[in-house]
Write a structure and sequence with these properties.
The chain is α/β, with parallel strands linked by helices and 314 residues long. The protein has one domain: Metal-dependent hydrolases (TIM Barrel), CATH 3.20.20. The protein contains 13 helices and 15 strands. Helix 3 packs parallel to helix 5. The longest helix is centred in the first third of the chain and has 19 residues.
Length: 314
């Protein structure tokens, strides 16, 4: 069993599950009766299902249902999804429509409400505008866990009322702000951005960017998608500095359908991470417990311990 709580592999472990809830980990012989379904996983590894901490489903050019069909076989059981493409066209109604689609799958789709719709005001035509009022409304939805990537980092640093209004509504709802700090500046600007409440950021292209964010208590989401293949560089933030990896996640951001079909999803990124020198169990933490902890959902979502509702994979 891959124990993501202690970053170790425990041999000869049984996992007893009752009505979807893990109730015992260890030698579970006393839990077996004539009515018990026993799955013999000898020679295999059991681990929590994988979570993608930053993804745009629309980039894969399918609905949430078809996306789930594609990634579940690769071990992905949940996504933290920023639907800003559909929101640019149809606003919150479009997001709600995709959430209805998500209800028809066993996949757990957790939404971060798009923060920058339109992305470049005054330079593009969009079907919707999202501001603090819309953010306040969406924060009452069950599936919404936070604010989507705050691309307007200039507005945050310079005190934009609109940007800070969205941040404030998210913080009032006690939910997570996700970031997008894409400039190679890791001093005053990054400090101001982190200080505004941003909890994570996937926009690192240099190892020093990822390291600086982790040192400020932000989760560095190390990206390896279809267009942005940053992981071989970003992994050096961990491997060359020997720092704790608890503030590091692995994410895909944008994936073309061909990439998923031919190469995989988070399992593909895990293989790249290990090839880059990140220990396998640490890498698995970066798509399980680290992600859930980032979104303050670690209890009951990924801990492979007792008394948890946890989707497992073998």
């Amino acid at each position: 069993m891959v124990n993501v709580c202690t970053a170790e592999v425990q041999d000869s472990m049984d996992v007893a599950i009752v009505e979807g809830r893990i109730v015992y980990v260890g030698n579970a012989a006393h839990c077996v009766s004539e009515d018990t379904t026993v799955i013999d996983a000898a020679g295999a590894y059991i681990a929590p299902g994988f979570l993608d901490g930053h993804i745009h489903v629309e980039s894969s050019m399918v609905g949430v249902g078809e996306y789930a069909r594609a990634v579940i076989p690769h071990g992905t059981v949940g996504i933290y999804w920023d639907p800003h493409e559909i929101a640019n066209v149809l606003g919150l109604e479009g997001v709600q429509a995709m959430l209805e689609d998500a209800k028809n799958t066993p996949h757990k789709a957790m939404v971060t409400t798009p923060s920058c719709v339109p992305a470049v005001p005054g330079f593009e035509d969009t079907g919707s505008v999202i501001g603090p009022d819309e953010i306040r409304e969406s924060m009452t939805w069950d599936s919404v866990v936070g604010l989507g990537e705050m691309m307007n980092f200039v507005g945050v640093v310079n005190g934009s009322d609109h940007a800070h209004g969205e941040l404030a509504e998210t913080l009032k709802a006690d939910k997570v702000i996700t970031g997008h700090y894409s400039v190679p500046e890791t001093d005053r600007g990054l400090n101001a951005y982190a200080g505004s409440g941003v909890r994570c950021c996937h926009e690192s292209t240099r190892a020093e960017d990822a390291l600086a964010k982790m040192r400020l208590g932000m989760y560095a989401q190390l990206r390896h998608g279809s267009a942005w293949l940053d992981l071989p560089v970003l992994a050096k933030a961990l491997t060359e500095n020997k720092v704790d990896s608890r503030f590091a996640n692995l994410v895909s951001d944008d994936l073309h359908p061909y990439t998923i079909v031919e190469e995989g999803h988070l399992d593909r990124i895990l293989r790249v991470a290990v090839a880059c020198g990140i220990p396998a169990v640490r890498a698995i933490q970066m798509v399980t417990i680290n992600v859930a902890t980032c979104f303050r959902m670690d209890r009951g979502l990924v801990d492979c311990t007792t008394f948890q509702f946890v989707p497992l994979e073998v």
